[in-house]
Amino acid sequence: MKKNLTYRDKLLELAQIYGVREIQEYIKRRKNLTTGQLELILRKNKIIIPKDFKTNFFKENFSKPLLKVSKQIDDFKEESSKTAYKVSRRITYFKEDSSRSVSSFFYNLWRLIGKAGIGFLNIIPKLGRTYYNFFIEVFTDLFHGIYSQQISKGKKVGQVIAVFFVAAGVITIVVSGISTFKNLNDTENKQIVNKEPPKTEKEIKKSKPQKEIKKEAEKIKPKVKTKEKVSAVILPDLNLKTQTVLNLFEDVNYDLNKVRSEKRVKPIYFTQFPKDLDEIQSVQLKKETFIKIVLPLIVAENEKILDDRYKLNKITARKITTDDEKQWLRQKFLEYKVKKGSIEELKNRMDMIPVSLALAQAAKESGWGTSRFALEGNAIFGQWTWTGKGIEPLLRDKSKNHKILRFPILRASVKSYKKNLNTHKSYKEFRAKRRDMRERNKKISGLELTKTLDNYAQTGDEYTKILKQIIVQNKLTDFELVRLENSIEKKELNL
Asked: If we measure between CA atoms, which residue out of 299, 387, 310 comes closest to residue 350?
């Protein structure tokens, strides 16, 4: 007698009957497929699932709702723990900031008191000179009055002397106090940037003689920095046409063959794709336009990560860390989701994503920049969300409630993608393989790391094969060592 099969077992039996290779390979590798994944693969192979295969009444009406409720409870717990951690972090930061402000207040107060005390001490010599001059004048006038009998007998000489003495002292103190107050203001004003508009070259030439200008020109030699040769260009959200973009690339001499040979790319950052990108008839031109838009964004985010990694190595090389460095480390632990504060784990996560791999995934997930998610929500890498703002897929299964995460600009999508690979538990193998390459002083290869991304999509190994195919066919490995034209090369190679 045949046993009652579960819905999942029935799906597996159906796959065996029709000989679905993909499911059989998963079973051979002892990889457990969910019921939803089995349904998706069967539908993909155009296999009709009979109605009597559906789950029973209890599962539909009790089990599934309970699972949803438990999932919502878990999400709530996770969100509440995140909120509590953020609150505690803000409290600690507030304590640190308040202590700094209080200490700086008392320091400035003590400094002002010291300056006022020094100013008061400076009064004493001035007061002595005033008294000296006063007594000379008083005695001179006194003897002159006695001689000329201008002072009447009813007035006392002592009273006159006392009045003049007090008046001179008061005047001296007032004048000295005003002068010290002015000196304090002058010292403080030296620290403030002059807000007057700078003089033009013509005004400077008029005010100074020609000889002095020539001497100053000989002394001052301008220093040209390589970083300032090429400035970054951020193109705003203007709904640019594809032809306008192509004309811009031609004007600035943006050529991919040149980028491949020189390993330098222009820092041109698009905020969105042209809406009519799919209207380009030539497939090769469409792909090149896509790469030209996305490549600077990927390279810029990589260089930002490598700068942080360089700073981390400098901090860990020293025994003593400053307060600013400790605060920076706290922020990076939080950013890369390193809970135990392990420096080694932070180094493991704080690393670049190969350019070829990022380009291949962007091309696959966005349809070379022509998908609805890429055009409407700047979603290049097809990241899912259950809580954030997203775009609902048109062919989404009724049992699922995920959305495709949307972003305000393209670079935000690139940043989120790199954070996902560097922090999510599904990509531990990816990070371990990358670390192994670092330790063996091997080049971080996108082709090698594609093997570790079978969890990125539901299709598993088939997804990694597609990525390899995209990298090889489009020669994306040529962009692995590409840097921005305005970047500075670091001598230290052990990043």
From this structure: 310
